[in-house]
C-alpha cells in the first residue's frame, strides 16, 4: 500500500515513540496518501497530462484514499491546526467528490482562507483566487488574478497566466485567453504542461 518513499518515511514517524502521538504526523501522512491516490489518473495512455476536471476517477486508488481519510481523522486529536491538516482536508474534498462538478468549493475556499492566515504566501493567494473562480464564476477570479501579477514571487510562474487563460476562456474571450496560455507556455519547462497549453490555445 505504501509504495512511495514519502509515504514510507511518513509512516516511520508514526512508529517512533517521539512522534507517533503528534497529530501533524498523521495529517502529513493523510496528505501524502490522498495525493498519491490520484497519481495514476494524471497521465493518459499517450503520456499526456490530464487536468483534475478531466481525470478518470475510477483510476483513483480507493484503498489509499480510505487510508488517507483514516489518517486525517487520527490527526484531529490535537489542540492546533497545521498547514498539513488544511492541505490534507483540501485534498480530501477532491477525493470525496464523485465528479468534478460535485466538488465542495465552498468548503475548499474555507480551508484556503484558513491556510492563507496560517502561512501567507502569493502561491496560496493564487490558489485561493482559482477556488473563488470555481465557486463564484470566472469573473470573480480574473480581477484577483490580475492583482497577483504585481506579486514579485509570482513573476515567471506559469500557473498564474494559465489560470488567467482558463478564466478568460470560460468568459468567452478566447483571444485574450490564448495570449495568457501562450505566456504560460513560455514560462514552463515541462513538456507535458506545454502540450496541455497547446491544446487549449488550439480551442
Describe, in plain words, how this protein is organized in 3D:
The chain is mainly alpha-helical. It has helices spanning 5-13, 23-36, 62-74, 83-96, 105-118, 122-136, 138-148, 158-170, 174-187, 191-201. Helix 1 packs antiparallel against helix 2 (23-36), helix 7 packs antiparallel against helix 8 and helix 8 runs antiparallel to helix 9 (174-187).
Output mean pLDDT: 91
Distance between the termini: 40 Å
> Quick one: how many beta strands?
0
What are the low-pLDDT stretches, counting only 5+ consecutive residues below 50? none
Task: Tell me the overall shape.
Answer: globular
Which range does the strand content fall in? Answer: under 5%
User: What is the N-to-C succession of helices and strands?
Assistant: HHHHHHHHHH
Helical element count?
A: 10
Summarize the entry for a quick read.
With 203 residues, this protein is mainly α. It is built from 10 helices and no strands.
List keywords for this structure.
mainly alpha, 0% strand, 10 helices, 63% helix, 203 residues
